[in-house]
Amino acid sequence: MEIKYFCPLWGSKELDFLEFVKKDKTSGYDGIEMSLPPDKKEKEYILKKIKEHNLLYLAQHYETDSADYEVHKR
After folding, report:
1. Percentage of the chain with pLDDT > 90?
2. Predicted structure pTM score
3. Are 72 and 64 in contact (CB under 8 A)?
4. Side by side, which strands form the sheet with 6-8?
5. CA angle at residue 14 from 6 to 51, to 5 degrees?
6. Residue 8, CB-side half-sphere exposure with 13 Å CA sphere
7. What is the number of alpha carbons within 13 Å of residue 46 lying toward its C-beta?
8. How many helices (H) and strands (E) does the chain have?
9. Which element (helix H / strand E) includes 44?
10. Mean pLDDT of 17-38
11. Which of 23, 31, 53, 54 is the most exposed place for a label (fewest CB within 10 A)?
12. What distance in Å separates the CA atoms of residue 25 and residue 21, rounded to the nearest whole number?
């Protein structure tokens, strides 16, 4: 079994995203755990920077609070 270490974005939102990615990489993390924003352009930028720094992405989703699957799916 191989253990991977992911750094969550929460707690570091005050950092510029590129600064956060570089800090994670130099700190020895294998990837980033975060929720992606709904904006397509911002989402593409984030995923590009994660990939450029050879980091993995662990999806986090907490934005909905409904138990209704269709609401959550949207």
Report:
1. 65
2. 0.79
3. yes
4. 6-8, 31-34, 56-59
5. 40
6. 6
7. 21
8. 3, 3
9. helix 40-52
10. 94
11. 54
12. 6
